[in-house]
């Protein structure tokens, strides 16, 4: 049963304002000596995760898979790949997590399967078998070319010809990841059965991979070209606006079916990944009200470099889309450059302090609490097909997926010495390992623990409303939000200026007219701000949270 079912007095909306911790199983801890992380390794290190003060873990895929895309090509939706362990290992993981007060959210990759899945093996056999229409098949054009111009994410056309059926099949990602046909009612029901299987096993919710990719335009209309200024020359898919291969209106109705199922399991939650070309409006639509996703995230903040104006612009655009939506903000995950690199290693704590000030739920990625920078890998070390196919213009995602650093041994404590890890342990990560930082009271790890507890204990930060402060009312490079819940108000400020930036003087009366006074909360790793009357001085890299009287 879910943790909420075990503890019936817990709030079923625990997810609202919660902090999730993403674990990439291949890279967390190798417990069986094969150089690849596994479920027993995760269970062994759950005490570390619980010590951070987070509310839940999100596990990237561990299902049966040929691993062409490292688990995002599922060959069996209801079993564990032997590489990671067994279903009994997963049950033990849930039991241990729940004993520590951690909820368990698992990935679900519904839009596509592996070409090794028995569904696809049957579907491709001929045009008349019971699963013939479970995937997206289309006849060639008269000249033998694919049925339209859709491009795949990992380079090349989104169509592959199958000689047996003499048709093309759609794959928005690798050719070995055929897209399921969600217009077929049996496909929709099969995936609801898959979700129920894991809910009955005791998971507390799901993270849905590319949740806006479930349905396609059945007319197979060509996608229009992307405006040239938005094209990334090294990525062919970026040359077109993905209007017809994803984000069809039927998607919303299916999300409501999923939500109805989740509502049968008190406290079960959902978080959707929104990819594509117009992400914020989609995130708002997919989380509006209480009948769709509980929360979702986009790549807008994941691609952030910590510029105050750009950060305000993202949040302002989202604010315009409605108040009944709920975001899950993150700065790092398994698909993007680590925030310690994108924001700057010296600003790792600043980045998380800003993240903790925002309205919404949060997600941290393994190693973010250590300030791990993006790993630099040689081409011959790459495993990610995205990077291999588009190198060197696109380096792929391996740099954020290298093994977790637990100590300063050759393999960082991830696997035994003499065992070759699936990706190299980055040498610069070893001095930042958990064992080193545990022993230093003022390490980033211990400061992040205090920061997360400070946020977790604050009802204003977890659930309060948010007012963005207009950049015109702030000095350059300063970002600010006002969080409020009833009579409680908290002004969160951060000076995001980089090297060469100067001290910023903030006029507090201009930001919160009529306030009778301010008191500063002690933020981990941040010096107390200098207050002179109703003006405050912030140094570059400094943040402060002010309680307003």
From TrEMBL:
Belongs to the glycosyl hydrolase 13 family. The keyword Secreted does not apply. It comes from Halomonas salifodinae. Keywords: Hydrolase. GO terms for molecular function: hydrolase activity. The keyword Hydrolase applies. Pfam families: Alpha-amylase (PF00128). CDD domains: AmyAc_OligoGlu. Residues 22-401 form the Glycosyl hydrolase family 13 catalytic domain. This is Alpha-amylase family glycosyl hydrolase. It comes from the Bacteria. SUPFAM superfamilies: (Trans)glycosidases (SSF51445).
């Amino acid at each position: 049963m879910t943790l909420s079912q075990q503890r019936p007095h817990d709030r079923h909306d625990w997810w609202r304002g919660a902090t999730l911790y993403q674990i990439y199983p291949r890279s967390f801890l190798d417990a069986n000596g094969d150089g690849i992380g596994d479920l027993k390794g995760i269970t062994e290190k759950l005490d570390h995760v619980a010590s951070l003060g987070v509310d839940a873990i999100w596990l990237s895929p561990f299902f049966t898979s040929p691993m062409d895309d490292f688990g995002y090509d599922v060959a069996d939706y209801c079993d564990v790949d032997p590489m990671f362990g067994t279903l009994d290992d997963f049950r033990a993981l849930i039991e241990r997590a729940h004993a520590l007060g951690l909820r368990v959210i698992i990935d679900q990759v519904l839009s596509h399967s592996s070409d090794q899945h028995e569904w696809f093996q049957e579907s491709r056999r001929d045009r008349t078998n019971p699963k013939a229409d479970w995937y997206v098949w289309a006849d060639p054009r008269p000249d033998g070319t694919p049925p339209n111009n859709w491009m795949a994410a990992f380079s090349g056309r989104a169509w592959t010809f199958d000689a047996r059926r003499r048709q093309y099949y759609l794959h928005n990602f690798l050719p070995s990841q055929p897209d399921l046909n969600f217009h077929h009612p049996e496909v929709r029901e099969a995936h609801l059965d898959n979700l129920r299987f894991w809910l009955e096993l005791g998971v507390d919710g799901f993270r849905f991979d590319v949740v806006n990719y479930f349905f396609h335009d059945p007319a197979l209309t060509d996608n229009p070209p992307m405006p040239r200024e938005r094209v990334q020359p090294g990525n062919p898919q970026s040359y077109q606006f993905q209007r017809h291969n994803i984000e069809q209106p039927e998607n919303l109705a299916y999300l409501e079916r999923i939500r109805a199922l989740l509502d049968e399991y008190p406290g079960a939650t959902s978080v959707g990944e929104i990819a594509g070309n117009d992400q914020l409006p989609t995130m708002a639509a997919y989380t509006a009200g209480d009948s769709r996703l509980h929360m979702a995230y986009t790549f807008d903040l994941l691609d952030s470099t910590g510029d105050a104006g750009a950060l305000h612009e993202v949040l302002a655009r989202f604010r315009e889309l409605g108040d009944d939506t709920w975001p899950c903000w993150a700065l790092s995950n398994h698909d993007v450059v680590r925030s310690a690199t994108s924001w700057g290693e010296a600003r790792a704590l600043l980045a998380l302090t800003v993240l903790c000030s925002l309205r919404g739920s949060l997600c941290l990625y393994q190693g973010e609490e250590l300030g791990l920078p993006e790993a630099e890998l040689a081409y011959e070390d790459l495993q990610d097909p995205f990077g291999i196919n588009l190198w060197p213009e696109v380096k792929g995602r391996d740099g954020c997926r290298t093994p977790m650093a637990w100590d300063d041994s050759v393999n960082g404590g991830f696997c035994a010495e003499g065992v070759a890890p699936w990706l190299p342990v980055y040498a610069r990560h070893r001095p930042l390992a958990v064992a080193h930082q545990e022993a230093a009271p003022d390490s980033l790890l211990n400061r992040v623990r205090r920061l997360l507890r400070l946020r977790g204990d604050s009802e204003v930060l977890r659930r309060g409303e948010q007012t963005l402060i207009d950049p015109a009312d702030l000095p350059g490079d300063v970002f600010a939000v006002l969080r409020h819940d009833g009579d409680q108000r908290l002004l969160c400020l951060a000076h995001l200026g980089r090297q060469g930036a100067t001290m910023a003087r903030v006029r507090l009366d201009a930001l919160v007219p009529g306030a009778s006074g301010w008191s500063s909360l002690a933020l981990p790793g941040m010096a107390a701000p200098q207050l002179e009357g109703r003006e405050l001085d912030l140094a570059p890299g400094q943040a402060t949270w002010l309680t307003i009287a």
